[in-house]
Amino acid sequence: MLNINLKTVVSLVIMSLASHSVWAEDSLSTPTASIPPAIANTPVVAPTPQVARAAFTTGITDREPDSQLATISAGQTVYYFTELVGLQGHVITHRWEKDGELQLGLQFPVGGQRWRVHSSKTISPNLPGKWTVIVQDSDGSVLHQDTLIVEPIIPAAVPADTALIPAPAPATTPVVAAPPPVTPPAMVPEKSKQAIWDTLQR
Question: Cβ neighbours of residue 14 under 8 Å, at least 6 residues apart?
Answer without folding.
Answer: none
